[in-house]
């Protein structure tokens, strides 16, 4: 079934930016124009929707953006959109521009906003998973994750050089308030000694005994990757405890921070974003609405917003176990 009522599509990015968002915007715009639809960009996420910050995107407006990090449409975490009044202003803006459907690119907060909006106003939305955290149910990977873990890996590789030279123990904090995907993949990719994840509690005592066993095996330096939201404390707090309880280790801390959010997207992220952006427009044309688009086992999938925001994508336990085995 096709939805011939859709003539004008708007696209926006919301929440934390993620490398590859521009490739997704390009794919949405180009696919829409290919199908003779008019496409509009909403600047600054839901805040821009409320303010009516909406302008036409032509073919060349999305040229030369594929390789750029960040988002040409800017982004925001809108407090006003969380209010009924804010959402009323947003629907008025969309109507004023005759927008028939929207493509929302972002994470859990973005999809929650779209879901609440859909319950109040009848306008088709589809969501594209755009977050470095890779924590969205309904897709194997989110746009930006691959670039973020490669950035983190390169940073940790550099820290490794100095850790090795000085025989030091480094606690390296990566992003992920609620999700350990970045931390786990970075830990495996850099051969870290240990990883602290938000999904499980590690004991610092256990870490210290493992480090002491490794020291007896002549392991002279150690890298411990810490997800910012892990339950045992951030990198600073963990390092403080270890300095007190195991002063024999020369302990240092490094927080990679927002470096992980920027930079030119990897090819994997560009391809993922292109596929998802193309699929979003095809989905709207074929009458789909209120779903998040994902790719699972290389196939495009459609997950109801309510499932995408309430169900969790569990970390692969086998990877966690393997990371520990390979770090002995
Ligand atoms: O959701 C992406 C993310 O980068 C998280 O990993 C991190 O906890 C958060 O955003 C940081 O958000 P902000 O840039 O608003 O401080």
Q: Which helices and strands appear, and what pairs or packs with what?
A:
Elements: E1 8-13, H1 21-34, E2 38-42, H2 45-51, E3 54-56, H3 84-96, E4 101-106, H4 108-120, E5 125-129, H5 145-166, E6 169-174, H6 181-190, E7 194-196, H7 204-216, E8 222-227, H8 235-245, E9 251-255, H9 267-285, E10 291-296, E11 299-304, H10 305-310, H11 317-326
Parallel strand pairs: 1-2, 1-4, 4-5, 5-10, 6-8, 6-9, 7-8
Antiparallel strand pairs: 2-3, 10-11
Helix pairs in contact: 1-9, 2-3, 5-6
Bound molecules: 6-O-phosphono-beta-D-fructofuranose.
Description:
This protein has about 325 residues and is α/β, with parallel strands linked by helices. The protein has 2 domains: about 10-145 and about 265-310, Rossmann fold, CATH 3.40.50; about 145-260, Phosphofructokinase domain (Rossmann fold), CATH 3.40.50.460. It has helices at about 20-35, 45-50, 85-95, 110-120, 145-165, 180-190, 205-215, 235-245, 265-285, 305-310, 315-325, and strands at about 10-15, 40, 55, 100-105, 125-130, 170-175, 195, 220-225, 250-255, 290-295, 300-305. A 7-stranded mixed sheet has the order 3-2-1-4-5-10-11, with helices on both faces. Helix 1 (about 20-35) links the parallel strand 1 (about 10-15) and strand 2. Helix 1 runs parallel beside helix 9, helix 2 packs across helix 3 (about 85-95) and helix 5 (about 145-165) crosses helix 6 (about 180-190). It starts with 7 loop residues before the first strand and ends with a helix. The mean pLDDT is about 95. Bound molecules: 6-O-phosphono-beta-D-fructofuranose (F6P). 6-O-phosphono-beta-D-fructofuranose (F6P) binds near residues 16, 131, 176, 177 and 261.
